[in-house]
Specification:
The complex is a heterodimer. Chain A is built from 6 helices and 17 strands. Chain A is an alpha+beta fold. In chain A, strands 1, 2, 3, 4, 5, 6, 7, 10, 12, 13, 15 and 17 form a 12-stranded mixed β-sheet that branches. Chain A is globular and about 65 Å long. The N and C termini of chain A lie far apart (75 Å). Chain B is mainly β. Chain B contains 6 helices and 50 strands. In chain B, the strands form 11 sheets. Chain B has a 22-stranded antiparallel beta barrel. The chains are: A alpha+beta, B mainly beta. The interface between A and B is large, with 101 and 96 residues. Strand 16 of chain A pairs antiparallel with strand 48 of chain B, so a sheet runs across the interface.
Chain lengths: 330, 743
């Protein structure tokens, strides 16, 4: 109708009132159709892609100088189904970790039904700079992955530095110095927001490090506050959190105060990650803040898994840690 | 090789000894503004010319005699003058055109001022600033949003004024103001552009296959020219909208003119009044200022100095030790000297500086974070127009730009990334517009670029051919090779953080082969119809690597970007305009495809970018009756692409050993799903008034009059037992009003 108006020639005839009324009815009909089509609602199910449920999910990380750990095997579930650990658990898979000529057969945890598998009795310690392979078989599917553990890693120094001058204020006692006094020594009592905590180490041949921040208390108070935080925000703070991957090229890792939410004893674990762990950590949903599909620049991207025949993480790291106590602000 | 020398000899063949030359400037009689691409002809001969992009024309090789000179330009009364030229005479004739007197029923859509450029060059469109102001808008008339209504040009969302032209993103579009690039032409996080409609004289856009005088980007070129100022009298215009107030003053000075145009938001008093300790109302404002001064130093010399200054400032105070401050802005200053070496040799020489600075300071619980990005450049540029003969118009030019890039990222008082580069880009070009036949115009060009970070010389041939099948029907072809050396990192919905990065020797610069073919039909002055197809093949594309470490120190291009991408964009556009009469406007339709492929993305599979939209339709109209004008825009587009969810899974955090409370969403193939179609109707009504004896206009506009909440993006919320994804919607119905006035 619009095109007809657009290129119609000017007429010298008297306009017929009936035709004029016909035009008004047409316009009204088109406008009504547009209004009806304005409700941009859809079936939520149409927002999911082809379901990939039943894909094996390998959840296993090896830490140098620690015993071969329990691991988890799960599977994906459909995107429009509420996720539960029971629904996702795979409890009857065949799981084998090999190192060189040695094979370590994992068995389902008899107590857990959440896809947890235990290593053999008296599991070996994880060696540095060593290749480990995992094989998982379940329901006709097979998942494989390889990790090469990094060399050993140690933190040389933990200290407080002045927030203005960035000069050292004092050293903290580390677990290597005296593990029994880490949480009782006066030098390790750190008032919240006073100065900055820094760990220093010799970088090793890994692409990046990840920091785990663990509050050992169960019910200590918050040290953070802010009028812009509501109750729901406070509920979301957890006593264990981690950083994104950090290159720390100079070996000086400074702890940001926003990573500390609670008072009490803290352990900061610095993981020197292998390539698998690094690739997953830098592309993981937590790092990418996934939940937003395509807000800008297509950032809803599949993480890097390095699992053939499945998804998940089979990675390794070396770790060292420091401890201190956060005191609430006066 | 011999044929090149023959060609050059023919082009530069000395003029006939007895021939005369006619030259001068074409200007608007009412205000002295130069008129670009006016048609000048000697009636009854094949001799004629088109005024160049400075309003200068030259007709040479004119045998002595008496002629009727006819000058035509849409929106102006034809100019006729009888003149006699003696042998070897060089007559300087300044032509002043009188704007047409419009009756109450008639409106001239001045969209075809650049008709002569449109005849020679495919994929070229121009708009007058009055057209921009007439289109319904949200809050403020906006140049970039108006361009989004044209075929082949899309918007990513209601929030963004970024241009997506023929399958390319804002990073591939070059935006120039008085020949100088603006690196972030947006206010309000991309909602508005930095272009004040009151300050603009004209704008033109080459959607693809742009000619040799431009270079450095893979997609489109938008060339905006500011007003020169009224050479006849001092006058002022102003306007108030719900967002901002603006005013423009202009007038004569000595042998020239001046113009100053400013715009600023005025929301701060309102925001201050409602801000309290219990809410976090941010403080925000933007302003821009355009200024220009012209002087005729002699009959052969003109000097123009112009400047643009714009800033955005956001301040959000959350609590002690927690705040967000974002400031960004552009500054550009240009000095241009125009010299007429001879009646047939015209030159422009320009020195300009442009700066874009973005500074974001954050602090959360006493942890400071700083991002600072700046790009400064100094450019020296020269362009020569040689009106060699009635068949050949040569353009030769050079450009040298010295850049100073700086990017700094500081986290918790540790410098985590510092990038400082000072590359330079040297370019030259030569172009001949050859009237091969009375019905055929060939524009042949060659551009060469040397970018210091890359080394070497990139040669870029350019070609366009226009052939008239009849008086009103033309076929056009065009194409060329294009490179891009700077890469824009942009975020839709938050353009304050945009920054540019030069591509160093670790990556190959982006390259595009473009081709277009089309047909145009002008059955009358009232209607114009064009159909055009395009194809662009892209190589060496880069895209920001979102998986870098947050403290990554490497500033090399192959570490910052995923590189080696390829892709294509192809499609067809249909454009029907009604340009005169009480009812004016256009219908545009685009059918298009675009795809990309990167080894590191989507597991190496090719994918559609988000802004790939198969069908795009626009209907723009304006109806003028007496003192009333009624406008409407209707746009319809099939859904943009998004990545859907394909599964849910859970993994312990390896650093803490804890299984998160919320599971993760596994994405399906990248951009394999589509949002619902987008459509929107905007309406406007304008009333011409007389306030204290001065012309004024009151307008009421309704953005999204049907209140359709179009889909913007999908959010998969895993924090509650509900699995329904949330669809984030775009803007609702927004009425605005304002007043424009003159004084």
């Amino acid at each position: 109708m619009s095109i007809i108006l657009f290129i119609g020639r000017k007429s010298t005839r008297t306009v017929d009132p009936l035709r004029k009324g016909h035009s008004y009815h047409l316009m009204l009909s088109v406008f009504s159709l547009l209004l009806i089509s304005c409700a941009a609602e859809r079936d939520p199910g149409s927002l999911f892609g082809p379901a990939e449920q039943g894909t094996l999910v390998v959840d296993a990380t090896l830490i140098v100088d620690r015993p071969m750990p329990p691991i988890f095997i799960r599977q994906t579930i459909a995107p429009n189904v509420v996720y539960t650990q029971n629904a996702a658990a795979v409890n009857t898979a065949e799981v084998i970790i090999t190192q060189g000529a040695s094979e370590y057969k994992y068995l389902p945890d008899p107590v857990s039904s959440l896809g947890r598998y235990l290593p053999p009795v008296a599991p070996p310690f994880i060696l540095p700079e060593t290749e480990y392979r995992i094989l998982v078989r379940f329901g006709g599917k097979e998942a494989r992955a390889v990790t090469t553990t990094p060399k050993r890693f140690t933190i040389d120094q933990a200290l407080m530095i002045d927030v203005k001058t960035l000069e050292p204020v004092r050293d903290l006692i580390t677990f290597r110095d005296n593990p029994n006094t880490v949480f009782t020594a006066p030098v390790n009592q750190v008032p919240y927001l006073e100065n900055l905590i820094e760990t220093r180490f010799q970088p090793i041949n890994v692409k990046a490090y990840q920091v785990g921040i663990i509050n050992l208390e169960t019910d200590s108070d918050f040290v953070i506050s802010g009028d812009f935080l509501d109750d729901e925000d406070f509920e979301n703070f957890e006593r264990k959190s981690s950083s994104p991957p950090l290159e720390v090229a100079d070996g000086n890792l400074r702890l940001p105060w926003f990573a500390i939410a609670f008072a009490g004893r803290h352990i900061i674990q610095v993981f020197a990650m292998d390539d698998n762990w690094f690739d997953f950590a830098r592309s993981s949903p937590e790092t990418q803040n996934v939940g937003f599909g395509n807000l800008a620049g297509d950032n809803f991207e599949r993480p890097i898994f390095h699992i053939d025949g499945g998804i998940g993480l089979f990675g390794s790291a070396s770790v060292d840690s420091v401890g201190f106590v956060i005191l609430p602000q006066k | 090789m011999r044929s090149i020398w023959v060609w050059l000899f023919v082009v530069f063949l000395p003029t006939t000894v007895q021939a005369a030359t006619l030259s001068g400037f074409v200007t608007d009689n009412s205000n002295g503004e130069s008129l670009l691409f006016a048609n000048i002809a000697l009636e009854g001969t094949t001799l004629g010319a088109v005024s160049n992009d400075n309003g200068y024309y030259a007709i040479n090789n004119v045998p002595p005699g008496t002629y009727n000179l006819v000058v035509t330009y849409i929106g102006y009364a034809s100019y006729r003058h009888t003149l006699t030229l003696a042998a070897t005479e060089n007559l300087r004739l300044e032509i002043s055109l009188v704007p047409k007197t419009l009756n109450a029923e008639e409106t001239v859509v001045e969209a075809d001022r650049y008709k002569e450029e449109r005849l020679a060059q495919p994929s070229f469109l121009s708009l007058k600033s009055t057209t921009l102001k007439d289109l319904p808008a949200v809050g403020e008339a906006d140049l970039l949003r108006s361009l989004q209504l044209l075929p082949g040009i899309q918007a990513a969302s209601d929030i963004s004024s970024g241009l997506y032209v023929r399958g390319g993103g804002p990073d591939q579009t070059q935006i120039l103001l008085d020949q100088i690039p603006l690196y972030n032409p947006s206010h309000a996080f991309g909602f508005f552009s930095t272009f004040n409609p009151d300050a603009i004289k004209d704008l033109s856009i080459y959607k693809s296959a742009y000619p040799a005088q431009y270079g450095g980007n893979l997609g489109a070129v938008l060339d905006v020219t500011n007003r020169d100022g009224n050479r006849k009298e001092v006058q002022g215009t102003g306007g108030i909208s719900v967002i901002a107030a603006r005013t423009t003053l202009e007038g004569p000075i000595h042998k020239g003119s001046w113009m100053v145009s400013g715009r600023r938001t005025y929301l701060e008093p309102l925001l201050n009044a409602i801000r309290s300790d219990s809410n976090n109302i941010p403080g925000y404002y933007f302003y821009d200022l355009n200024a220009k001064i012209n002087q005729d130093l002699s009959l052969s010399d003109k000097l123009v100095v112009s400047g643009y200054f714009g800033r955005d400032d956001l301040n959000l105070d959350l609590d002690t030790g927690s705040f967000v401050k974002v400031r960004w802005g552009n500054t550009a200053v240009t000095g241009k000297w125009t010299h007429i070496f001879s009646p047939t040799l015209f030159g422009n020489f320009l020195v300009a500086g442009s700066e874009y600075v973005s500074r974001t300071s954050l602090s959360f619980f006493e942890t400071p974070i700083l991002f600072r990005n700046s790009i400064r450049d100094i450019t020296v540029k020269g362009d020569l127009d040689y009106f060699a003969s009635s068949k050949h118009n040569l353009k030769i030019g050079f450009k040298g730009t010295r850049y100073d890039f700086s990017f700094r990222q500081v986290f918790n008082q540790q410098e985590t990334l510092t990038l400082k580069l000072k590359p330079h880009l040297l370019s030259f070009y030569i172009q001949d517009q050859w009237q091969a036949l009375p019905t055929t115009t060939i524009r042949l060009g060659l551009r060469g670029n040397h970018f210091s970070e890359q080394g070497g010389l990139d040669l870029e041939p350019r070609l366009s051919i226009s052939h008239s099948l009849s008086e009103n029907v033309r076929m056009k072809f065009g194409g060329g090779l294009y490179h891009q050396y700077l890469q824009l990192i942009t975020t839709e919905g938050f353009s304050g953080g945009d920054f540019w990065v030069p591509l160093d020797s670790t990556v190959t610069p982006g390259r595009a082969y473009q081709s277009v073919a089309g047909i145009e039909w002008d059955p009358s002055e009232r209607y114009q119809l064009s159909v055009e197809t395009y194809l662009s093949k892209l190589n060496n594309l880069v895209v920001i690597d979102n998986n870098q470490s947050v403290d990554g120190e490497s500033s090399q291009s192959n570490d910052i970007f995923n590189t080696g991408g390829s892709g294509y964009a192809t499609g067809m556009e249909f454009f029907l305009q009604r340009r005169t009469g009480a009812l004016t406007g256009w219908i545009g339709y685009t059918l298009g495809w675009t795809r990309r492929r990167f080894a590191e993305l989507n597991q190496g599979q090719s994918f559609h970018p988000k802004y790939d939209r198969r069908h795009d339709f626009s209907f723009v109209s304006k109806y003028k009756k007496g003192n009333w004008s009624f406008g409407s825009n209707f746009v319809y587009g099939t859904g943009q692409a998004f990545t859907p969810a394909s599964a849910r899974y859970a993994l312990r955090s390896p650093a803490t050993g804890v299984l998160p409370q919320d599971d993760f969403i596994l994405p399906a193939g990248r951009n394999t799903a589509r949002l619902l179609p987008y459509h929107r109707l905007d309406l406007s009504v304008t009333r011409d008034l007389n306030i204290f004896g001065r012309k004024a206009q009151f307008y009421l506009q309704v953005f999204n009059a049907l209140n359709r909440r179009n889909e913007w993006f999908i959010q998969y919320d895993t924090q509650n037992p509900d699995t329904d994804p949330e669809v984030i919607k775009m803007l609702p119905i927004i009425p605005t009003m304002g007043l424009n006035f003159t004084f």
